[in-house]
Amino acid sequence: MSTRLFRPSTLRTALRSTISTPSKLVRPASIAFTRGKATLPDLPYDYGALEPAISGQIMELHHSKHHATYVNSYNNFTEQLASATSAGDPAAQIALQPMINFHGGGHINHTLFWENLAPKNRGGGEPPKGKLGDAIELAYGGVEGLKKVVNTKLAGVQGSGWVWLVKDTETGALQVRSYANQDPVVGQFKPLLGIDAWEHAYYLQYQNRKAEYFNAVWDVINWKAAEKRFE
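User: That's the sequence. What structure does it adopt?
Assistant: Structure tokens below.
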């Protein structure tokens, strides 16, 4: 399918009336907020640019619909929280927190995920280098060993969730960890590379053959982004 049918800038027009738009490059999650408002990041590649690993149709829906919903919902619930705080209503504040955590986590996770991907003609799938490459070699015997560990974790995700390669900020060691639903990587762990195991990330293309998606996504992994996070 033609990549010109899936340009993010075209499909984003309808969203701009309600969502502040950053520059065309994906921003890190830490700055994907403007004055407290979450913003939907543009992608630095066309929706169809990751084919055949991930179809343009999936990328269009995943980014412009699913991620946009997390952004809008996070902003909506944080506004409600501000009102509940002003009203001195602790019960309402507590009730809103799970939804803020869920949608805020979805926004953070997806912002990092888009950065973790790149078309093959722009480095997607090229093996990691430098300090991260050395650390992967030490911990897993190389990228192929890491893939096996990650894919085994992905196959074990029940329902919805993510699998992340993380750096332990206390020891510097690498770990592969699974997170349920939209729980973000926080605390002592720093996210380096994440793979979305939610059905919306693959089902239109792979149906029930999710193991094929878990294998194919490595062809478009942007290790340069992970290398920068590891530093």
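The beta strands are 33-34, 37-38, 161-168, 174-180, 189-196.
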